[in-house]
Specification:
The structure is a homodimer.
Chain A (H helix, E strand, L loop, with lengths): L11 H20 L4 E5 L15 H6 L7 E4 L4 E5 L4 H7 L6 E4 L5 H8 L5 E4 L6 H14 L2 E4 L4 H5 L12 E2 L2 H4 L3 H14 L4 E4 L2 H8 L1 E2 L12 E5 L4 E4 L9 H5 L3 E4 L4 H10 L4 E3 L6 H10 L4 E2 L5 H5 L3 H28 L7 H13 L4 E4 L4 E4 L23 E6 L1 E3 L2 E2 L2 E6 L6 H22 L3 E2 L4 H13 L10 E3 L8 E6 L13 E4 L2 E4 L3 E4 L2 E8 L8 E6 L17 H18 L5 H10 L5
Parallel strand pairs in A: 1-5, 3-4, 5-6, 8-13, 11-12, 13-14
Antiparallel strand pairs in A: 1-2, 2-3, 7-9, 8-10, 10-11, 15-18, 16-17, 17-20, 18-19, 21-28, 22-23, 24-27, 25-26, 27-28
């Protein structure tokens, strides 16, 4: 996950600067006769990674996490973050300026309902909130007896004097050899589907949907090769694309062909006005489109039809070319990881390797690979207690040496032209300690592994959602009174976002059936605060499976990720025969597929690391 | 489940009558200048069991299932039912009159969107739909370019000349010895909670909520001891109860005390008007309250605050007196079931016992029990292929003899003053057949049992919902490509509804955490069409459990139901050691608790039926 400029509040200069920023912002609000304002971490496209020009929350509060929001009133302000960031927010944000709150236990809506004065006006930027988000805010403002006001321009930008300009990374074609289907074919199919649903057009506001639909890639945000843009897909399969023209690589318009018209971003409003005035039935996704889009269409005369982004599901179900690509990418990525693990296993026990060095070394192994373009997120390298901080990012300040007898958690991934990878391995540095600590480590690691295997070997009928599988990953931990506070799996793109929907494996309700071609991560974990963190993550792809005698159409998973799971941390007596068989078969496959791709020394190490558990 | 007057469409007279009814209804619609009308199976209180006066769907279409709805247009009509009723609807409804459709695959909303003519007016009775239901209908009417119109009186009632009067069963106190907490205490607590949430009042439209809150019971609908009524709970803990006064048993107003004012049902509208005019903040549940309530409050000047019925959660979490009561009720009920099973095991192999005789015999065994008041639903007794029809109800016409070598599924329950029971047992009549059929029966039964045990032995952290546990019940079936098309568990009341919310174990999303005191059923199954049905159902109560070394607050289940599970249908080699241990321990407990409650012959049978599986 991206951390643009990680600085902690303990830097005195920064504390002063932040206090001044908040004061200036409050003056600006007063000038505009606003009582308060809500600052989400979101950009206009609800991106996970946002460009520096959109880092308003970080600029104002100091908090650089990937999710959160703040609210400012004349005499109070608060910042709302989830469980991943409760520690980080205390490090980065001055509680005298912003009261830190848990986003679900002490939500913004309650804070607004309790603190917004009667008759007060709470402002928001309609580009940065979804309609669903605005509806929740509206309810809170109603409760407080105040009102909510969308603003034409963001008052924070008025005081952010050195706000960077929007990014202008080049946009290039994503070749058919990787995409598998032409953009024209996708446009026609989706246009026909709109027509069949009685719709005239769909507003596309998710840039990864647009990148998928038009077979283009860009670089406007870190780690995800997408160009910021908006688009309107019409029922005849043509597309109006709203994008900074100077970003387009030479020849790109030829790649687009006749069916795609390029317009300046500022022209989106007029295009929505025309749709609204012609009473067109226009689809927009209330979960991701800015409220601005809904407001504009409604004002122009035709409230949008609410529905899911039409690219979401077809993008998630990878075609055979994309699946073949990701298998290749995972093989090369696995070879890089194995070369790294062999090095680590030799060097780390000497006690001199740090988290940052380990991450950089792995980056180096990957960079040598064909088709490598970027990491798919900032590597999480957590030694000992740092591993217990779920969304830990090592910094010069927190950087820790890998100590013998400690656990090291490493979560990393890469963007290759033919696929996106994401893998977590948890290793013991040297030998597992003797005595109760070592036994506990093995017990926890093995329970996490049992959860991982339960997901990997799951068979389930067509229509089953990832929510229904989540408990398989947790049951072995639950039996011991343990759990982990993150999802079990997220969707993964094809040389696109390392997090994509609509499917996921999570205890949160999700009704999207897991369909063949969907890629998801399988990553149960366990975290002991102040001691160590464990996570075992492979990517898997959903497949149709043939079960003899089956009465239902069945689905299962094929594991894509290839790298050994640390045998030293496994307590074999906790595994069932079936679990042991899975582990040995997986390791045999890792050995078969990767040995030929690595040097002799690494191959020797790999042979040992993939021995049957016995 | 209740089937008031089961008649099949094959009766020629009935076919003629139904055709005439539909014609008369269409004339009535035309007189009112309505294009069409929607007829849900619901009554005003979204009851599962509705009184005969509310059986509009059955009267018009012939369909007597517990869920469904019909829509009538000038030249078309359709009936929408779920998977449980796809066979029954074909038996009962003339497809020339009503096209049968699957309620989720071919929903009403799509049918309306496709068939309602542009400019047409679709009527509905706002007492019989929730606001959420109306919103979906509105969207469909919008799509068709038609409009939706709430009606002050139901046009069907105008042509239903022999519509029965509303029920007037007596309302009696539910004694503290069973209720565990006084109504005054409950009212005060819930009133204080409304006040803390900034609310002035709550409209209660679910009669089981009102029965729970006021510690009263009635008999207006079959099998559920509730009186039909509406109520308004105020923040000071007082209640306005809207109920037919002649239903109140002598002395009931003394039982109510000062805090409860009784009004005629027709006065509800005026009371809502007063609340609306005073701008009171009134809670109403959009999932269950009639749209009429929302419309009335909104028109009077104060749109309701949408939220869950405030009785729902406290009613679900049974207090220690209620739990002690249900344990007692289950012990007596178990003794009745065991007496019946012993008789069945002796008589059925002779080949002369029918489904209806078996059900009646079991009813007789229960009737002898102390505190017995009613069955909690119509017994499901399915021999051989009839067992594969999930919501089968045996009739004179379908009644089947229990044949040796066939499987018999029996789902039944009772209402005792101290608790509500619901148990399913699946037995082999005589001996399991030799060869592949017998092996298949054992395989299926054992997989269902494995799912049942996985739920019974689950441990899970506080906050875990039943949706998260559902897969535990299915995984063993999924491994063989099998599944079942119903939920795994429903909430159960305390001498109230055999189905109650808000918790359930289901693959459908549900975010209600399972909290101590909640009672749910644990009932996985397997159904082979044309051959047999298997279901193993116990009720369980959620408990706080102490897991050594636990890092989370953990929950588990205590099984309440006591009766042997047919050992002859178990394939021991498919069970793990842990599963075998659970089964033997359960049987030992059944034997310990019930032997003293049955006669010597039954005790001998029970000893054999509860022997360790070995």
């Amino acid at each position: 996950m991206y951390e643009a400029h990680f600085q902690t509040f303990e830097d005195a200069d920064r504390g002063v600067a932040l206090s001044a920023r908040l004061a200036a912002f409050r003056e600006e609000l007063a000038r505009r006769h606003l009582t308060g304002f809500v600052i989400p971490r979101a950009d206009q496209q609800q991106n996970e990674y946002v460009p520096p020009s959109e880092e308003r929350l970080a600029w104002l509060t100091g908090f650089t996490g990937s999710a959160g929001l703040a609210a400012v009133l004349p005499d109070q302000a608060a910042i709302f973050v989830d469980g991943r960031y409760t520690l980080q927010v205390r490090d980065q944000v001055d509680p005298a300026l912003f009261e830190p709150r848990h986003v679900t236990d002490q939500p913004l809506e309650r804070w607004v309902a309790e603190n917004l004065p009667k008759g007060a006006v709470l402002g928001y930027d309609p580009w940065l909130h979804t309609v669903e988000g605005v509806a929740r805010l509206q309810e809170a403002a109603d409760k407080a007896g105040g009102s909510l006001q969308p603003l034409a321009d963001n008052p924070l930008d008025a005081v952010w004097t050195d706000q960077p300009p929007p990014p202008i990374a080049p946009v290039v074609p994503h070749e058919l050899a990787y995409a598998g289907r032409s953009a024209a074919e996708k446009r026609q199919e989706l246009g026909a589907k709109l027509a069949a649903d009685g719709l005239d057009a769909a507003v596309l506001t998710l840039p990864d949907s647009i990148a998928w639909l038009l077979n283009i890639r860009g670089g406007d945000v870190p780690h995800t090769p997408l160009p910021l843009s908006f688009a309107v897909l019409h029922r005849d399969g043509t597309v109006d694309l709203f994008i900074e023209r100077l970003k387009l690589a030479p020849g790109l318009e030829r790649h687009f062909g006749n069916g795609v018209a390029v317009h300046a971003p500022a022209e989106l409003g007029a295009a929505l006005d025309r749709l609204g005035e012609s009473k067109a039935r226009v689809l927009a996704d209330p979960a991701s489109a800015p409220a601005w889009v809904f407001d504009r269409l409604t004002r122009a005369g035709s409230a949008p039809v609410r529905g899911e982004d039409p690219c979401s599901l077809p993008k998630a179900c990878k075609n055979p070319v994309e699946i073949a690509g990701t298998r290749n990418a995972h093989r090369r990525d696995g070879a890089a990881v194995v070369r790294f693990l062999c090095w680590l296993d030799t060097e780390a026990p000497k006690g001199a390797v740090t988290e940052l060095e380990a991450a950089e070394r792995l980056h180096g192994c990957r960079r040598e690979n064909a088709l490598f373009r970027d990491l798919s997120f900032d590597t999480i390298a957590g030694a000992g207690p740092n591993g217990a901080i779920v969304h830990y990012r090592s910094t010069e300040k927190t950087n820790r040496k890998l100590a013998p007898g400690e656990i090291f958690l490493l979560d990393s991934g890469a963007q290759y032209l033919d696929g996106t990878t994401d893998i977590t391995r948890t290793m013991i540095v040297g030998r597992v300690p003797d005595g109760p600590l070592g036994a506990e480590m093995r017990d926890r690691f093995t329970r996490v592994l049992k959860g991982h295997i339960a997901v990997a070997t799951a068979r389930f009928p067509k229509g089953t959602s990832g929510s229904q599988l989540d408990t398989l990953a947790r049951a072995a931990l639950w039996q011991a009174g343990l759990d982990y506070d993150h999802g079990t799996g997220h969707g993964v793109g094809s040389y696109l976002g390392v997090h994509e929907g609509p499917q996921r494996i999570s205890k949160l309700p999700n009704r999207v059936g897991l369909e063949p071609g969907m890629i998801v991560s399988n990553e149960p974990g366990y975290y002991k605060t102040g001691a160590y963190g464990i996570r075992i993550e492979n990517l898997v792809v959903v497949t149709a499976i043939d079960v003899p005698g089956a009465e239902r159409e069945m689905r299962g998973f094929e594991t894509l990720t290839l790298a050994p799971i640390d045998r030293r941390l496994i307590e074999p007596s906790l595994l069932t025969d079936g679990e042991r068989a899975w582990l040995d078969a997986y390791h045999a496959r890792v050995s078969d597929e990767l040995t030929q791709l690595v040097d002799t020394a690494t191959a020797q190490w790999l042979a040992e690391a993939t021995r049957p558990i016995g």
